[in-house]
Amino acid sequence: MRQFPKNKLAQLVIKSCENFNINTVVISPGSRNAPLIIGFNGSKDIETLSIVDERCAAFFALGIAQQTRKPVALVCTSGSALLNYYPAIAEAFYSNIPLLIISADRPAHLIDIGDGQTIRQENVFENHILYNANLGYENDEINIKKAFKIAINKKGPVHINVPFDEPLYETEIIKYTKEEVVEEVKTSLIDEIPLDVDELQKYADIWNASTKKMVLVGSHFPDKLLQTQLAHLVKDPSVLVLIENTANVSHSKFINSIDKLIFPLGDDELEKFQPDILISLGGLIVSKKIKQHLRKYKPKHHWHTDAKRAFDTFHCLEHHFKVSSQLFFSQFFFLTKPVDSSYQDYWLQKKDVRLKKHQEFIENCAFSDLKVFSKLLISIPSKSQLQLSNSSIIRYSQLFDVNKTLRVFCNRGTSGIDGSTSTAIGAAFSVKENTVFITGDISFFYDSNALWNNYIPSNFRIIIINNGGGGIFRFIPGPKESNALDYFETPHNLTAEHLCKMHNFEYFIVNNEAELDEQLSNFYEESKLPKLLEIFTPREENDQILKAYFNNLKE
Ligand SMILES: Cc1ncc(C[n+]2csc(CCOP(=O)(O)OP(=O)(O)O)c2C)c(N)n1
């Protein structure tokens, strides 16, 4: 026997969540969603969390789902509450993260008649959602099941909109036992349908005839099989593997700082770098330089491997292998052979040259964002999870070798600055290991409600590089030469100190290199409270130093 909301639609939604083994629901307060709140709170199988600000709640849920790769449910009331989920929904859509959005609504006859807290909720996320289940019509049960299966199998956001008439708070005791998962859900490689071998052979023939092949890996969840496969690929001297830090793979023969390699190249060298074949995999690419390069010096063949979708990022996509990269490589390796070539070796030698230049410069450079980064990345304890905000933070990180035991994540689906802290906190909440989050000041203050959250583990660490504004706008061409730099950079004198007091973080401050060394020596030690380190860097010098760094890379 169990207490349920009296409302049958609420019962159906809650039972479906249990049957599909949803572990977590993040609830934001309201009255229209009372049947769902009461019902989920009565569930033994589902953990309920309470976060007031819906934008933060959604990014927090995204952080959990990013780690568990299982859908996390979100529940909110009607009206603008729901719209605050949109930034995280768009991020989930482009980053392939499963989210189950459950919104309470008024019944159809109360929409657009002047009722309070009422907007047009059905299909409101239409452009960035994998499925809309608008309940209250026919086939509610079928629609709900479809939403769950799509979120799980296709790894993305789905929206279930649930109209509730009053009364909202009534409950009933009913006999209830959880049913087993209603339908088989596909979650692993063995569920995939392999590629047709004859078809694949045609591509393997092109591959085997080429001496210049590039494999570009964007953001990817850490995966041992993929790591092994990519390590196998670089045994072939005609293959160059380019990775980003968020790809979570490593090897001494991978090119990991793409911009560092490309920036100094002249036209002759860029032509030399141009591959015949490009295989891309993983999520969206951070490196602007490689995007520019491959759009200008297009490979003859661009193939993308992904079970779900392929973007034509370089305007020359020839083929989409609609399977996971792991399945693709496991089939492809049967058909391919190493080819004699100097392609890989030539660029690995260049990589070494750049590294020497890099080290020389960093050793001697003044206190700045760049210098801070060089110290931060080596200070992070092994096996931590590293969460990065957008803007120059993710870009600086790409200039350095990151300890290969770290797992690195960043919201690159939409590259927003609006939910990085909330995402990092959700991710930290869902894993046991230490989580370190490095962020810019504007991104941090934008999402400061992320700290309004009772689930922040004590081993969570925030590091703010406070350069007094959006430092990226001093670096990229355009804003500085315009008459409106302040509107891009948005300079300020804010500090995180008072937020730390309000939200129970230990606060540390750094203004120079010596203080940085001192603070980093014990910043990661165990503590009762989570900690925040705010590093002030010289706003007007950072971009000069970064420009000098890139110029110095030139031979
Ligand atoms: C939601 C959202 N609004 C605006 C932007 C545009 N934008 C990109 S970077 C940036 C400034 C970020 O500043 P900060 O976090 O301090 O990082 P820094 O550039 O100093 O490294 C802005 C406003 C964005 N990416 N996302």
In brief:
With 555 residues, the chain is of the alpha/beta class.
Outline the structure in words.
With 555 residues, the chain is α/β, with parallel strands linked by helices. It contains 22 helices and 20 strands. α11 (288-296) links the parallel β12 (277-281) and β13. The protein is globular, with a radius of gyration of 25 Å. It binds thiamine diphosphate. The site of thiamine diphosphate has 17 residues, from α15 and α17.
Q: Which ligands accompany this protein?
A: thiamine diphosphate
**What fraction, in percent, of the residue positions are helical?**
25-40%
Low-confidence stretches: none
Number of strands: 20
Taken from the alpha-carbon principal axes, the silhouette is globular
Strand content: 15-25%
> What number is the mean pLDDT?
96
- Describe the main β-sheet briefly: 6 strands, parallel
Q: Give the end-to-end Cα distance, rounded to a whole number of Å.
A: 76 Å
Task: Give the count of helical stretches.
Answer: 22
The structure class reads alpha/beta
Q: How many whole angstroms does the radius of gyration measure?
A: 25 Å
